[in-house]
TrEMBL record:
Domain of life, per lineage: Bacteria
Protein's name according to its UniProt entry: Transport system permease protein
Signal peptide residues on this chain, from the entry's feature table: none
Keywords: Membrane, Transmembrane, Transmembrane helix
Transmembrane parts of this sequence: 6-30, 51-78, 98-121, 133-154, 160-179, 191-212, 240-264, 285-317, 323-346, 366-397, 409-428
């Protein structure tokens, strides 16, 4: 094992270990759906067992059905594989000193295990009589192209169908223009802009532009929230050192090209388009500021990766992990310290303040549909005669289950199960 590989293992262990500690202590979680539940536990309204069960229900399907399947076959891990698991590990370990130590240890070992295990899975698939690993890469294909449409959908949710159509057309035209004219010669070198990354940036600007057209009415909603939940805001600021360390480790991991915040940056990084991946990551983070800040104020629990800006900082400082660590720590520190100031400022632009939930809803819907389409393509590649039959049946039957798999995870799980089934049928001589 060389030094570079050892450093990768150390950094990913720090990310997973510290993330689990933050969840264990109720300082921060990654799953936006879990954050509103945390105050219920912290105030004694639900038990630790109920919190753990909720965390597992919200995150496990996304870990095994989204994060890990998308990460398989690459050297870059989708952050959900580590940080959502940290939510589970942190909430399932006891709420005491030894539980915190246990959470850190399990989180670190799990994260290293993911890095090692992904390669093991790749090697295992290669030994199967029907190698379907290559087909799994098709699952994220539609996400890579379609991700840039989510701001237009968010605009439609927030401002109506007509403005959503306008945002969609602008995004579409931006994609076509960059695809056609986005290659330049700079100092004798060819520079190519990513149509996906640049159209996403344009779409985010359009979304923010529409949101800014709604002027404040003087109600001061966020200022009122800060007054009501001042104690919870103070709790977040009190834990700034832990959050800054987490921001530093995540930025460091991003600079080493170990983790990606989401599917689009993940795919861009796999293609070596790191600047475009950074642009897409930062654009995504800007859109998430209202959601992260508003839920942080109300719950007193911060996002494990903050606004996720630290991932973009890491990409901009790739191959400089030490500098990325300090820049990421500073970024997270500023997010925490300026939480109240920025939130008050959003009162002047209530449209921006309110767009957070629309961003989350639209992004989830786009990824759900894109993963389902990608899974259908992958299933048909694995078994041309039964692939579509298998996926559609699996998807619709899942909806009738008493405890259905979350929609994001249905397609990837169905595809992997089909790959295993095809190998069993091959051994039995049925195909």
């Amino acid at each position: 094992m060389d030094f570079a590989q050892l450093l990768d293992y150390i950094i990913i262990a720090c990310v997973g270990g510290l993330g689990s500690i933050l969840a264990n202590r109720g300082i921060a979680v990654f799953n936006d759906g879990l954050r509103p539940i945390m105050p219920e536990y912290l105030e004694g309204k639900i038990t630790r067992r109920e919190l753990a069960a909720t965390s597992f229900a919200l995150s496990f399907g996304l870990v095994i059905g989204f994060g890990i399947p998308i990460s398989i076959g690459t050297t870059i891990i989708v952050a959900h594989s580590i940080l959502l698991a940290a939510d589970i590990i942190g909430t399932w370990t006891p709420n005491n000193k030894w539980g915190t130590v246990l959470a850190g240890g399990i989180g670190a070992l799990y994260s290293i295990g993911v890095m090692i295990g992904l390669q093991f899975v790749v090697d295992l698939f290669a030994m199967l009589p029907v190698d379907f690993l290559g087909s799994l890469g098709s699952i994220a294909g539609p996400v890579f192209v379609a991700f840039a449409v989510f701001p237009a959908i968010a605009v439609a949710y927030q401002h109506g169908f007509l403005k959503g159509i306008i945002a969609f057309i602008i995004t579409f035209v931006a994609y076509l223009l960059v695809a056609k004219f986005g290659t330049f010669n700079v100092a004798g070198s060819k520079l190519s802009l990513s149509p996906e990354g640049m159209s996403l940036m344009v779409a985010m600007l359009v979304m923010i532009g529409f949101a800014m057209t709604k002027k404040g009415d003087g109600s001061g909603a966020n200022t009122s929230l800060l007054s009501i939940f001042a104690e919870r805001v103070a709790r977040i600021r009190k834990n700034w050192i832990w959050l800054a360390l987490m921001g530093g480790f995540i930025a460091c991991a991003s600079s080493l090209l170990i983790v990606a915040v989401d599917v689009l940056p993940h795919q861009l990084m796999n293609k070596g388009e790191y600047n475009e991946a950074a642009i897409a990551t930062i654009a995504r983070a800007i859109g998430f500021i209202p959601l992260v800040f508003s839920t942080a104020i109300v719950t007193g629990v911060y996002g494990m990766a903050g606004t996720t800006m630290v991932f973009g900082i890491g990409l901009l400082l790739r191959e400089h992990p030490v500098l990325a660590f300090f820049a990421g720590a500073l970024c997270m520190y500023l997010e925490v310290i300026l939480l109240a100031t920025i939130t008050k400022g959003l009162d002047k632009f209530p449209g921006i303040r309110d767009m957070g939930e629309h961003i989350r809803s639209s992004m989830t819907k786009v990824i759900e549909i894109a993963l389902l389409i990608g899974s259908a393509i992958a299933c048909n590649m694995i078994a041309p005669s039964i692939g579509y039959f298998w996926l559609i049946g699996f998807y619709l039957l899942n909806r009738t289950a008493k405890k259905p798999i979350v929609d994001l995870a249905v397609g990837p799980i169905a595809t992997i199960l089909l790959g295993v089934l095809v190998n069993i049928l091959h051994v039995l001589g049925m195909i």
